[in-house]
Specification:
The protein has 290 residues and is an alpha+beta fold. The protein has 14 helices and 11 strands. Helix 3 packs across helix 11 and helix 8 packs across helix 10.
Length: 290
Amino acid sequence: MENRLLDKNAPSDRLPDIDLPVDFFAWVDITREVLGWYNVPCKIKAGIFVLCVEGELTATINLKECRIRKNDFIVVAPGSVIQFHGSDTDFRLSFVGFSSKFVGEVNLLKSSLDFFPMMIENPVLPLKAETAEIYREYFALLYKMFVGDMLTHPEIQRCVLESLLYGIAGMYTKVESENDPRRLSRGEEICKELFRLVMKHYARERRVSFYAEQMRLSAQHLCTTVKQQTGKTVAELIADVVIMDAKALLKSTNMPIKEISISLNFPNVSFFGKYFKRYVGQSPQQYRNS
């Protein structure tokens, strides 16, 4: 099962990148033997949704140590860094994942605009037993359909992803309004505001100074705060969104690359190509053809 689940390929001088070898994957009864793959920090390229069905375990997700318990729902967004630390008890997890290629094509960031910052900051959501049971049964159904080769059509996979995102959006909304009375720290407020502004303006603005001005902060203060909170630079966060949109346009439309470049406000197609290759490692045309 491990060979089907993971595609682990990285040079020795960087974090291992882990992706799914297929667009969609569902599994149940995941145990410590499988998570042994993650006992060192790994960068997850896929979009992963996990339900803890039994037991407890400890992991670090994006520099935050998390104690995961029965009925916890875990969201691992593309680009997250995770490390499995171990467990004092036996545990079982159910898992649904989408490859980085598929996530790029459906544009996960746009689909999860309203709650994406919360998804990054709080990847573990405790569920009530009755809600967790619904997701357990849903994941079990997806697993049966997956092993029966009933989920091969991209539109069906897209519907599964969208249904999960709608459900997760509702869970985060409830957490924010009812179950999380603590006030955000100033750093968390700054990151949340930055995410919102980037999602609104990324197609026209990639200058750090623009976002600092919008937030009435110095560029240095904004950059320092974001780096401390997320481990990424402001430029990298902006690029994540720009590249996600570019990938979706390249894979899911027939728009000429020049038009995609114009739609994302690049001065010319050459500049867009260099920007895309810097973050993806391929030219836009190579990515489209891959």
